[in-house]
């Protein structure tokens, strides 16, 4: 077991690809292809706004499967917003529990300064298994 608690910020990927919600789905797909990423973060329009999220899965289900035009559909029409966010200082074990409970595979990592990165359930589980099991405390809850 490690001496330090593994945190989301220890695992998150800091390179994020962002796009405007006004972009067309075709533009978003081109950005995903150019950057070799499966998802994009949708920029906030102002300080009081929330980030959005769009993935290849969502484009497949909400655009292509419904025979919608890639050129006439804007990202804001199909994105998830608000998107699931995690605090970078959250313990990895709680992030894993939350993502698993909600059925999510990834989350945006956000602090008081804004978006800091992305984290996937896969990366969290792999890092947690390498870090060593943290002790279970009954007051933490099991489910």
How large is the share of residues in beta strands? 15-25%
The chain-level mean pLDDT equals 91
Helix content: 25-40%
- Order of strands, main sheet, comes to 1-2-3
How many strand elements?
6
Sheet with the most strands, sense and barrel status: 3 strands, mixed
Number of domains: 1
Q: What is the highest CATH level, the class?
A: Alpha Beta
CATH topology-level fold name: CBS-domain
Structural class: alpha/beta
Shape: elongated
- Extract low-pLDDT stretches: none
Distance between the termini: 22 Å
- In CATH, the architecture is Roll
Supply Rg: 17 Å
Give the helices and strands as they follow along the chain: HEHEEHHEHEEH
Number of DSSP helical runs: 6
CATH homologous superfamily designation = CBS-domain
Task: Supply database-style keywords.
single chain; 143 residues; alpha/beta; CBS-domain; three-stranded mixed sheet
Overview of this protein structure:
- The protein has a single domain (8-134), classed as Roll (CBS-domain), CATH 3.10.580.10.
- The chain starts with 7 loop residues before the first helix and ends in a 12-residue tail after the last helix.
- The strands form two sheets. The chain has a three-stranded mixed β-sheet with strand order 1-2-3. A three-stranded mixed β-sheet has the order 4-5-6.
- The chain is built from six helices and six strands; from the N terminus they run αβαββααβαββα.
- α5 (92-102) runs antiparallel to α6 (121-131).
- The protein has helices at residues 8-11, 25-35, 56-64, 75-78, 92-102, 121-131; strands spanning 18-19, 39-42, 52-55, 85-86, 106-111, 114-120.
């Amino acid at each position: 077991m490690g001496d330090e608690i593994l945190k989301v910020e220890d695992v998150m990927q800091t390179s994020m690809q962002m796009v405007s919600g006004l972009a067309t789905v075709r533009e978003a797909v081109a950005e995903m292809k150019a950057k070799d990423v499966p998802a994009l973060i949708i920029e906030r329009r102002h300080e009081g706004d929330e980030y959005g999220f769009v993935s290849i899965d969502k484009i497949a289900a909400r655009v292509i499967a419904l025979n919608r035009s890639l050129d006439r559909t804007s990202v804001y029409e199909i994105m998830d917003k608000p998107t699931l966010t995690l605090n970078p200082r959250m313990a990895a074990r709680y992030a894993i529990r939350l993502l698993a409970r909600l059925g999510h595979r990834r989350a945006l990592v956000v602090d008081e300064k804004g978006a800091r990165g992305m984290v996937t359930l896969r990366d969290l589980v792999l890092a947690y298994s390498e870090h060593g099991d943290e002790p279970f405390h009954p007051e933490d809850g099991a489910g």
